[in-house]
């Protein structure tokens, strides 16, 4: 480690809250699938800021849209209108087939927004008794870090010491349709779920699970909320991960890659019945729907389709997953994923994924360990076949030694 790196890390440690434990690499530049540290070392980014930079680092067209808009108008608040919002609505609605859009900033805010909307929908449309609304969520969920959200997390690190929490949530195991059916009652307003549990280690539910969930939600008048903040916008090789399941959510949450990593932009996508319950003064955000965010999101969505990043995600994901599963190593327990949302689960006897991520870093790959024994692999969707093959060589060396 050079003295510049060491000095920056020491300063961060001294002045910053210690709510993260990052790898000791200090990045100063990014382009496409690559990032460079302050000493000029280049790395292949296999995290993509938790899928916020699906379009690749510093995508030139998103950058141009951002600079152009920043020179004209950045923020009006929703007290006035701006000339970008309507275009953003039109383009994201057409792309996703949604009828109503509510723009926010962070992913957690989109989740909180959906919770507010479905509760109100439950009282006003479904007829649930006042303050009795229940939302079913999954064990090992990850939906963000705000108070409302950590209150229904099952991860002790996320919730211990932060109570008291809001009531109104019921837990079921992810992928267990019988448990979901049994948890439904007359107060159930929504089922909030990730199509693939990302932070829990890229967990894919059994085939047919989501089709059955959709059917139960429809027959019981329950709003199906899919949190596609990580899985959405091409990550899994489809525009939305729901596409793999042949279903449509009632409420879809997107964030992260909605801006290609330039700016926090999130959105709740739904129909008139659910988002229609929110009236003036009942919800909002100073920055939500601002012209800079809208211009950036429009460009981020445009390049995703224009440059066939979703198709590339499907093709390169298949190549990457096949290559990983062909690595002969007695410490690999399972390789899984969809599109470019991949994970290698190691045998617990291997001593944890962190040291393998450190070894990958030394070979020019930045990947993140999750839940102890899993290496998560999620490069920008612009990755080429040669870059996948090079990455596979590094994984093979590290996992075999
Ligand atoms: C990242 C993430 C969130 C939270 O998004 P923030 O922008 O960090 O608030 C919510 N849900 C899922 C599935 C995520 O991956």
Outline the fold blueprint.
Blueprint: H1 3-15, E1 27-31, E2 34-37, E3 42-45, H2 48-51, H3 60-70, H4 85-96, E4 100-104, H5 107-126, E5 134-138, H6 147-150, H7 156-159, E6 169-172, H8 177-183, E7 188-193, H9 209-220, E8 223-227, H10 242-245, E9 251-254, E10 266-270, H11 272-275, H12 291-306, H13 309-325, E11 332-338, E12 341-346, H14 354-362, E13 365-366, E14 368-370, E15 374-377, H15 385-400
Parallel strand pairs: 3-13, 5-6, 5-7, 7-8, 8-9
Antiparallel strand pairs: 1-2, 2-3, 4-10, 9-10, 11-12, 12-15, 14-15
The protein binds pyridoxal-5'-phosphate.
Pyridoxal-5'-phosphate binds at residues 50, 106-108, 111, 142-144, 194, 198, 227, 229-230, 255-256.
Whole-number tally of structural domains: 2
What is the number of beta strands? 15
Mean pLDDT: 97
Strand order of the largest sheet: 4-10-9-8-7-5-6
Query: How much helicity do the residues have?
Result: 25-40%
Bound molecules: pyridoxal-5'-phosphate
**N-to-C order of helices and strands:** HEEEHHHEHEHHEHEHEHEEHHHEEHEEEH
């Amino acid at each position: 480690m050079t003295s510049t790196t060491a000095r920056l890390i020491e300063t961060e440690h001294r002045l910053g809250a210690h709510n993260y434990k990052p790898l000791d690499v200090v990045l100063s530049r990014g382009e496409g699938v690559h990032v460079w540290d302050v000493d000029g070392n280049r790395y292949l980014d296999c995290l993509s800021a938790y899928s916020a930079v699906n379009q690749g680092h510093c995508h030139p067209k998103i950058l141009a849209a951002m600079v152009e808009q920043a020179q004209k108008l950045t923020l009006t608040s929703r007290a006035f209108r701006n000339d970008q919002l309507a275009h953003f609505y039109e383009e994201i609605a057409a792309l996703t087939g949604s009828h109503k859009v509510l723009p926010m900033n962070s992913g957690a805010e989109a989740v909180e927004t959906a919770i507010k909307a479905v509760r109100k929908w439950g009282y006003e449309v479904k007829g649930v008794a006042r303050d009795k609304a229940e939302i079913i969520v999954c064990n090992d969920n990850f939906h963000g870090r705000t108070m409302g959200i950590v209150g229904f997390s099952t991860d002790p690190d996320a919730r211990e010491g932060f109570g008291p929490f809001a009531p109104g949530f019921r837990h079921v195991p992810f992928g267990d349709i019988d448990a979901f059916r049994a948890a439904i009652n007359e107060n159930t307003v929504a089922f909030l779920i990730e199509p693939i549990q990302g932070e829990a280690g890229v967990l894919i539910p059994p085939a047919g699970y989501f089709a059955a969930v959709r059917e139960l939600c429809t027959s019981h008048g329950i709003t199906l909320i899919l949190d596609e903040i990580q899985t959405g916008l091409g990550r899994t090789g489809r525009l939305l991960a729901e596409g793999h399941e042949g279903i449509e959510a009632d409420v879809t949450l997107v964030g992260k890659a909605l801006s290609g990593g330039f700016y926090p932009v999130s959105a709740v996508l739904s129909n008139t019945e659910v988002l229609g319950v929110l009236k003036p003064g009942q919800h909002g955000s100073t920055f939500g729907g601002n012209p800079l965010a809208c211009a950036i999101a429009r460009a981020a969505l445009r390049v995703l389709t224009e440059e066939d990043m979703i198709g590339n995600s499907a093709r390169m994901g298949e190549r990457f997953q096949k290559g990983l599963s062909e690595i002969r190593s007695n410490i690999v327990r399972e390789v899984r994923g969809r599109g470019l949302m991949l994970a290698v689960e190691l045998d617990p006897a291997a001593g944890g994924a962190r040291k393998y991520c450190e070894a990958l870093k030394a070979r020019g790959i930045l990947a993140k360990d999750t839940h102890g024994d899993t290496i998560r692999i999620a490069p920008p969707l612009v990755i080429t076949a040669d870059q996948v093959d090079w990455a596979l060589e590094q994984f093979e060396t590290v996992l075999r030694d």
